[in-house]
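quick q for whoever's on today - can somebody do inverse folding on this one?? i tried earlier but teh output was garbage lol. tokens:
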């Protein structure tokens, strides 16, 4: 890995959320919790139910956005729109509908005959094995640099009408400002074999 971008803090907890249609006890406000298991779940999978709006507490600078611990299917698409005003009238960024699941695997890492050999996208079996599926957008990403967009409000649109569960579920979204983007040249991963050194957990009182 030569480059990575770290973004924080999340601006969603300080925003006011509305819109969509959500099950009792699993409303859209749940996604403001830092506990991923406290999810929002839509009443059905129609596009009218699976969209929501946010008004930030003040103008915020956004470089990346994410949907964390979701149940979105292989054919789902997502769209993020940012606005310069709190009434959602002046759009300053529109991602258009983007696939939630893009290429994960290079073709040469897959076996000939695998169902995803040409696309490199994850399979249904693979995404069902993930504990916290993540979908992320970096705004206008070019190399290691992302566009920074000042925003007062935002809208999310999810199109996953074919979801087998009949609803969408979200553990938490994220909308974050830019941060320093370190560049690591020649960075490598390594492993260290366990030895006979004692391992322990600190006591909890």
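ok took a stab at it. sequence:
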């Amino acid at each position: 890995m030569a480059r990575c971008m770290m973004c924080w803090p999340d601006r969603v907890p300080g925003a006011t959320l509305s819109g969509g249609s959500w099950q009792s006890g699993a409303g859209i406000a749940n996604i403001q919790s830092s506990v991923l298991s406290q999810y929002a779940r839509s009443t059905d999978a129609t596009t009218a139910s699976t969209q929501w709006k946010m008004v930030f507490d003040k103008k915020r600078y956004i470089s990346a956005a994410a949907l964390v611990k979701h149940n979105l299917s292989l054919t789902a698409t997502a769209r993020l729109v940012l606005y310069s005003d709190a009434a959602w009238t002046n759009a300053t960024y529109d991602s258009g509908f983007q696939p939630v699941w893009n290429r994960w695997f290079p073709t040469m890492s897959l076996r000939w005959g695998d169902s995803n050999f040409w696309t490199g996208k994850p399979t249904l079996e693979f995404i069902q094995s993930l504990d916290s599926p993540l979908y992320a957008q970096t705004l206008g990403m070019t190399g290691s640099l992302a566009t920074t967009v000042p925003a007062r409000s935002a809208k999310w649109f999810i199109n996953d009408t074919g979801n087998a569960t009949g609803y969408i579920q979200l553990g938490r979204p994220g909308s974050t400002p830019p941060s320093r983007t370190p560049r690591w040249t020649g960075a490598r991963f390594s492993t260290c074999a366990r030895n006979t050194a004692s391992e322990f957990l600190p006591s909890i009182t």
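fwiw Residues 185 and 201 are 35 Å apart (CA to CA). also The domain at 12-176 is CATH 2.60.120.260 (Jelly Rolls). so keep that in mind when u check it
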